[in-house]
Amino acid sequence: MTRAVAARFDPSTQHRRSLIAKVHVARKELALDDDTYRAVLAEVTGRTSAADCDEAQLVALVDHFRQRGFGPKVRRAGAARADHPSARKARALWISLHQLGVVHNASEHALEAFAARQLGCERMAWARQSECYRLIEALKAMAERAGWAQRGPDGEALRLEALHEGLCMAILGKLKAAGVAPKTMTLSSAIFAFGGIRPGAPWGIDSYPAIAASFGEWLRRAGQSTGEA
Question: Which InterPro entries has this protein been placed in (predicted)?
């Protein structure tokens, strides 16, 4: 009985050449640097070069890239932004840090660049969820350094309303330091003076993001957006 030869294919076959070409196109289209590309190869195929992969491994690799946006849809509309829970949390923190004057550029591109440095991965959409805590913790550390507490006095997790209020209080502190707001101004007074809320109008937890954005605009006008990112 003839024994089948596993994992070896004629490199001259048209199908295999086509698969290798797709891998290289995907690498370029997804803007993978050499280290990230080799890491993906190793994870999906156990190889470090597409030329060493058999046909089944190449198919798996192309499918992997398609799951991460490679293909006609990406060429038409650009790479989809990450939408997993860690990405949404990181995005909310990034925008909040922009209002606090810690982040100069609130764009998705700037966040992706920061995330790439923290995670060692080109895009948040490709990062393992188990590793994304490093990005979240880095953003929280930036918040803490700027006076926005992320935990209670005993290390307990804060409720969402307390986090929102803490952000507004931290921005108000900077407005006071810049001489924009009186030193004795309370948060309630500041919300009507700088938060875009009309005096006497109702507001609640759902209003905090808009209030923080308005506070942040006042802070930038005062030239106090001098953060670290």
Answer: Phage_Mu_Gp16 (IPR009363)
Contact 190, 215 (CB under 8 A): yes
What 8-state DSSP symbol labels residue 99? H
Do 107 and 64 belong together in one domain?
Answer: no
Output the 3-class SS for 8-28: CCCCCCHHHHHHHHHHHHHHH
User: 153: helix, coil or strand?
Assistant: coil
pLDDT per residue over 61-107, tens digit each? 887 877 766 765 433 344 578 888 999 999 999 999 999 999 988 98
Residues 173 and 185 in one domain: yes
DSSP state of 200: T
The answer to whether residue 228 sits within a structural domain is no
Q: Would you say the pTM of this structure is higher than 0.70?
A: no
Q: Which amino acid is at 211?
A: I
Q: Do 73 and 85 belong together in one domain?
A: no
Q: How many structural domains are present in the chain?
A: 3
C-alpha pair distances (Å), 66 with each of 35, 84, 88, 132: 19, 17, 22, 22
- 173 within some domain: yes
Give the bridge partners for 181, in sequence order: none
Pair 58, 32 in one domain: yes
Helix axes 34-45, 55-67, angle to 10 degrees: 120
